[in-house]
Amino acid sequence: MFEQEFEKFLDQQRRSASGARLERLHKDLTGEKQMLEVVIWPVLKSFDGITMEQEMVSTTGVKIYVDAVYEPVRIAFESNGFVPHAEMITRDRFTFEQMRIRTIAMQGYKYIPFSRDEQEKRAEAARRAFYELLGRFSTSPGLAFEELSVLEREVIRYGLRLNRPIKLEDVRYCLQCGRHALELSFAI
């Protein structure tokens, strides 16, 4: 299902793009696609609110591009491979990368990079980080997280802090209630 939805999404992104952004959307997007498939899609189950290769202009007038932006919560995602982003980086490139991060922050986005190795070897941890960000910063109507009840949101927040799979006893502890109350609240 992801492949079909991604192709439709990418086609829509290309149709709405022009100039350098359009060129970037026609280049190899392996890292961006992997990040969308492994981190973003499993959490959101759609591409609503996502823009690929978002253009931003720094205070010095330099155009930069962010791999993917989730506009409802203003998150700027980057998929960073070790070789192109770190292995043989020059001082000038390092300085440029720091300017990119500042530009993203100055435009009101939370900069969230994921290494390619992290996406391949610790995908669940990357998804948990995204879930936690949604829990901390989502206030926009229309987000799936907003459709949850207050109790459900609190259980998710608590579960994210546990850094392990959540158990029924964790839910009872979080909500300070017994099993019968849980059955009534969540219709378990």
CATH class of the domain at 2-123: Alpha Beta
**Multimeric state of these chains?**
single chain
Strand order of the largest sheet: 1-2-3-4
Number of helices: 10
Distance between the termini: 29 Å
Q: Class by helix and strand content?
A: alpha+beta
How would you name the CATH homologous superfamily of the domain at 2-123?
A: VSR Endonuclease
Biggest sheet, in brief? 4 strands, mixed
Topology order in helix (H) and strand (E) letters: HHHEEEHHEHHHHH
Task: Provide the CATH architecture of the domain at 2-123.
Answer: 3-Layer(aba) Sandwich
β content, as a range?
Answer: 5-15%
Output the CATH topology of the domain at 2-123.
Endonuclease, Chain A
Summarize the structure.
The protein is α+β, with helices and mostly antiparallel strands.
